[in-house]
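ugh finaly. both done.
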Amino acid sequence: MVLLGLIAVIVAIVLVVVRPASGQGDEADADGESGAAQSASADGETAAEETLIPTEPTAADGDACTDAQVHVEAVTDKTVYEPGEQPQLSVTITNTGSNVCVLNAGTNAQVFTITSGDEQYWISTDCQVDPIDAEVSLAPNAPISSSAPIVWDRTRSSVDSCEGPREAVPADGASYHLAVSVDGFSSATTRQFQLY
């Protein structure tokens, strides 16, 4: 009986000693998993932060204008012209971006073109006199327009007819379209008008 009692005491001591070690291992495993989760979380946050870094520099005031921020509109003073009335042509430029941008809005950088159907009848550069460059700063959402309109005399233009008389274009309700480009930026649509 004494021997059995002694064995029971030894078994109890062994269980007490082994159990905490096993528990510590579980805690260590839990800590290991927790550490791995924290590491993964940290790595995920780092990856997320890296994806937020912009790939292109932000536009700054004074940069050259881009296609994405310049809206060019062809303008005429009327949509219908009676016999003898000469269309007055101009342009409006709007910066649709969020920063001030710069472009050349001088007459040297402006091209006005009048067409009807597939035929080009008149272009402002054919007989242009003393064109100038004029760098302007476009503030966001503050349209600028031509200081003085170009008057079209209702004739067909060519570089060979600048000095003499030119042929009158068809009228009697004929429909024409004005397109404008400024510093390489073209009007998205044309301005339609009629001549009588």
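ok and the 2nd:
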Amino acid sequence: MSEKTSEKKKTRTPMPEQPPEVRAGNFDEVALGYSKEDAIAEASRCLNCKEPKCVEGCPVNVDIPGFIKLICEEDFEGAIEKIKATNALPAICGRVCPQESQCEALCVLGKKSEPVAIGRLERFCADYEREKGVSAPGVPGSDIVEPTGRTVAVVGSGPAGLTAAADLAKLGHKVTIFESLHKTGGVLSYGIPEFRLPKEIVKQEVEYIKQLGVEIKPNYIIGRIKTLDQLCKEFDAVFLGTGAGLPRFMGIEGENLNGVYSANEFLTRVNLMKAYDPNYDTVVRRGKHVVVVGGGNVAMDSARSALRLGAEEVSVVYRRGEEEMPARREEIKHAKEEGVSLKLLANPTRILGDDKFNVKGIECIKMELGEPDASGRRSPVPMEGSEFIIDADVVIIAIGTSPNPIIFKGSEGLEQNRRGTVVAEDETGATSKCGVFAGGDVVTGAATVISAMGAGKKAAKAIDEYLKEK
């Protein structure tokens, strides 16, 4: 490799973006996507390793070197087919997956320079397919697997459920998805804002799942309309991918005041109920001084959404430092560029209200990092007498979620742990209830889209083996 070529490979191709001062005032997608020339230039940085490590970091086992090589050859149709052989939701993964801590973290090029932008290249291929109408594997015009005569119920149409459904349909099983909401997509639809994941993208990815023969029944709450036990009698197997939609609160004074939201409710109103669209008269409090509590992607999504709804000042309160924030570095960077203020090493102690029970402020205490906790992270310790107040007319609590307990109604023999999540085997998703498998946030608690998809893939394989044995 020449010195000039080596230098060229060090820096990744920039992603075109809306300028911060423009995007902070709209809900349009921030990242604009690679052009054909950008994609080829970035793909050419790949070293074509004889023993690529990047695939090991992909929960859905995409043939990363294979599809990147096809981009270099300008065979974009072949590239998207190779991706979709194992990933049913590439346009979504290319936008919201934390590639920097997964496939890109293991890229050999990243040891001395910037890793190949695998996520951006995946997004390019998916967007190319959508724009050009490329026929992907498993849809009309491709080879169809002979029906097995077996039926599988999938509860929940989030990333875990959609992935499991797609893989099972490709194996010839008849799959029916039961979704409690009126829209398909789970957290992809109600949780992730338009500026990170346009709803049209989710809709089109779901259409691909339908083309595989999957039936989707919206407005269908398992635990109310039918129980899990009833599904077990009607179907040969069941997959639970119901996510973690039950918000957690801090248990501090003032959480019942007007203007206090869980991030789930706030983002559902913004996304699913379309508060982001001026043509909709969605009821949501548009505060001037908004405080978001938490340090994950959901907190960043809430803060950036509040800013776009017209807030003059948005602060994120987090009890650790910026390095310890679980949010993606890119999301933190974008939030700061747009004007979101980080109030680090601080933790709320109470929420203050006026005589009409409306939020008027939030009291916090300063923290310092002490000894590492069980996970290896340094535990935050309050600094006595350091309380301070931040003015606020809206407070959004984004400190995590748990599974909705409704799924356990009428589900005899389904074991759950003290956190309220379903107990399931790591490699198969098998639960304590015969014929019932589970994966995603309903098992792990709130995690990433791609980890849920990985669980859906493992469960689909295990369900197929179970059905063959049955």
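summary for the 2nd one i guess: The chain has 16 helices and 16 strands.
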